[in-house]
Specification:
It is a single chain. The chain is α/β, with parallel strands linked by helices and about 400 residues long. The chain folds into 2 domains: about 90 residues, no CATH class; about 200 residues, no CATH class. The chain is about 40% helix and about 10% strand.
Length: about 400
Amino acid sequence: MPDSTPSTSRHSPSRVRNSAEGARDLARIEKTVGVRGEPDPQLAMLSSLSTEDLIPADHPIRRIRVVDDVVLADLDDVFDGMYAPGGRRSVPPETLLKATVLMAMYSIRSERAFCERLNYDLVFKWFLDMRIDQPAFDATTFTKNRTRLLAHDVADEFFAAVVRQAKLRRYLSSDHFSVDGTLLDAWASHKSFKPKDGPPADPPAGRNVEVAWHGERRANDTHASTTDPEARLYRKSRGTPAKLCYSGHLLMEHRNALIVDAELTTADGYAERATAIEMLARLPATARRRTVAGDKGYDTRGFITDVRGLGFTPHIAPNTTRQRSAIDGRTTRHTGHAISMRIRKRIEEPFGWIKTIAGGRKLRYRGRQRNRAWFRITAAVYNLIRITALDAVPA
């Protein structure tokens, strides 16, 4: 007996009609939300891409690299004198300096962190002229190679080469300057500040052992840090805590607020004024009368006399709080003094960049020599960024 139930064949009119409607619905959904994709784990066997193809043409680091390459080309003779004519190849000095530039611009704290990021950051590989598949440097080898820069005063040569590029572009003023200093925390803790002639230290009782300093007189004459003996306990003003630190100094020109000299010294009450005189004395001699601006901390008779002896007019902020100012109306009555008082505040911009972006609020090395080299190179990096920004301004 034939079956009386409706046909359920896949060719039945109802199923065909339902299938057509479903296809239209599916096409409409695809147009609105798309079909979910799946990751393809298959690796490409060959690739013709390079880091040059992947960095955007308008990326700011391209302009920085142009200036940086010109600076490094100016140091070829210095680099040749650092290495023997034969032997095993080492990390190129250009690469070491370029790595320092990247560490300052991208706030990288250590060489080990830089080598780790170099494995996957294509911008870094492009800046260092490395292939995409080229492995990063070993952190220990990279750090030991960087010590070669200290032995040959490359930091001073690099800074001077950057300043020369600013001079060639006529970005520097040779008549008007500002000086200032700041404190940079040393890589040492208060617990390491111990008496020089005290009893032998007890065996360590742990990293966070409690130490009581209340009632104990601690001074740089009788105490020293066991971590960084060259650091000094100092505070810049009353009401602020004393810290183990170094003193950073900058000499800035007034035309475009570029750094023309930088120095790092031990911190004491005379370092700012004494270092300012040294930096002014290193400027090329000229017959024209020049000006130098500074805050109230430079308003002392000794500093004013030394500055005038070097051929500078001291545009110093008068300090009348606790003393009679060494700056009188013969200087402050001129319009140039008011202009210098306004422009000198721009010296806080490089200090702020060095402390925050470059990570110099707390120094990363022990000893004045290594920290001074870092400070000079970092000041040069700040100038590189300023020069590329000025290059981009329409004439």
